[in-house]
Amino acid sequence: MKEPIILLGGGGHCKSCIDVIEQEGKYEILGITDLPDKAGQSMAGYPVIGTDDDLPELKNSCNNFLITIGHIQSPGLRVKLFELLKELGVNIPVIISPHAIVSKHAKIGSGTIVMHNAIVNTEAVVGENCILNTGALIEHESHVGAHCHISTYAILNGQCQVGSGCFIGSNTVLANNISIPENTLVAAGSVVLRTLEKSGTYIGNPLRKIR
Questions:
Q1: pLDDT tens-place string over residues 134-193
Q2: Cα–Cα distance measured from residue 50 to residue 96, given in angstroms and rounded to the nearest whole number
Q3: The domain 94-205: what is its CATH number?
Q4: Is 207 exposed, middle or buried (0-12, 13-18, 19+ CB in 10 A)?
Q5: Sequence ranges of the chain with CATH classification 2.160.10.10
Q6: If pLDDT is split at 50, 70 and 90, which confidence band does 66 have?
Q7: Reduced to 3 states, what is the DSSP secondary structure of residue 85?
Q8: Range 3-88: architecture per CATH
Q9: I want to staple 95 with a disulfide (CB 3.0 to 4.6 A). Which of 29, 113, 133, 204 is the partner?
Q10: Which residues contact 3 (CB under 8 A, 6 or more apart)?
């Protein structure tokens, strides 16, 4: 029997999460929390059942919650909601697409979603509340901190270290043994061939810091 789950945030990322949850087959989506003006609407057939302010009441009927708000510029809202869920004492499960490959020797933190065709290789460690988006590759012994978004088809080669709160854009490649400081954004299509010493926004090949 499937366990009930409630999703926090009803945007485009939520639609992709719904597909992964449905295909994983472990949870039955009860509904979605969103902004007050979305009340009564639905997404992919699931109703908007309240706002984040309703979470203390909603936990009385459901113990499983997943944050389905995306992260590009900042993980701030995802972090805030994750801390709220922990305070409420609810379960924040790991969601793994049946089309993903996750080594039995890897570790995935609570609240992280591993989406279709992503690969997490042996001895990789992924922190809490992360998004490993479609086709992302986390190679052997790489570590990804909490609240990160590794975007579509990004590649982290072996033994990389990505600090918490980072966004690694689509098709970006990190060479072996690269370290990225926390709260750094690396734009889509970038190539990172050296460890980055300072947090900021980086883009390109060759890579350059723009903020």
A1: 999 999 999 999 999 999 999 999 999 999 999 999 999 999 999 999 999 999 999 999
A2: 26
A3: 2.160.10.10
A4: middle
A5: 94-205
A6: very high
A7: helix
A8: 3-Layer(aba) Sandwich (3.40)
A9: 113
A10: 26, 27, 28, 63, 64
